């Protein structure tokens, strides 16, 4: 029995539950650059270029392990522009018996995955994304019977559960100024990493696809223009 394992652009880690029990001899990893995801809300071209670059690097890492990767590029003439369409095409190419995915970070894609169970011709297994401290079920249990859904209260529960940002049984004190300067340093480091990783060719490819891009962080824009 073979499985088609879909990896999303924000799931680029070898430990993602989709890949945990992969059978290298039989299974296929599907990764796809689709217009539907690149354009459902306005994005800057550089952000999309960075995402696609990261996806392509991760696909190559998997291939070096001997894993079969079916990678669909944005400029592929046969690209359907959607995850649903690319799953259908990949099933036709590989004849897999099941689809394995990890739950997404967006409700819109979560609903899409639930629809696949009804519309695609093979079973669809949706696995928990265990990269987070809390699961959907954890939050659902916490939210049951509450009149207010303030994240502040949920974060308090998570801190007590994990012990993170705690000093004994009390929250760890942190100053606003230190937090702000830390975020600024992190943003600058991110911008410098983008400068290293994203090639001019990738940006040109995304630009050619005419993806809408009205806004972006000024800091990242300045770094990219200085290349």
Describe, in plain words, how this protein is organized in 3D.
With 227 residues, this protein is of the alpha/beta class. It folds into 2 domains: 1-131 and 179-227, Rossmann fold (3-Layer(aba) Sandwich), CATH 3.40.50.620; 136-171, no CATH class. The chain is 48% helix and 12% strand. It has 9 helices and 7 strands, in the order ββααβαβαβααββααα. It has a 5-stranded parallel sheet with strand order 3-2-1-4-5, sandwiched between helices. Strands 6-7 form a two-stranded antiparallel sheet. A hairpin with a 2-residue loop joins strand 6 and strand 7. It is globular, with a radius of gyration of 20 Å. The protein starts with a strand and ends with a helix.
Features of this protein?
227 residues, Rossmann fold, two-stranded antiparallel ribbon, 7 strands, five-stranded parallel β-sheet
CATH class of the largest domain: Alpha Beta
- How many helices? The count is 9
CATH architecture type of the largest domain: 3-Layer(aba) Sandwich
How do the strands of the widest beta sheet line up side by side?
3-2-1-4-5
CATH superfamily of the largest domain: HUPs
Structural class label: alpha/beta
How is the topology of this model organized?
Elements: E1 3-6, E2 28-32, H1 35-39, H2 45-64, E3 68-72, H3 83-94, E4 98-102, H4 107-119, E5 124-127, H5 136-143, H6 151-162, E6 166-167, E7 170-171, H7 176-197, H8 200-208, H9 218-225
Parallel strand pairs: 1-2, 1-4, 2-3, 4-5
Antiparallel strand pairs: 6-7
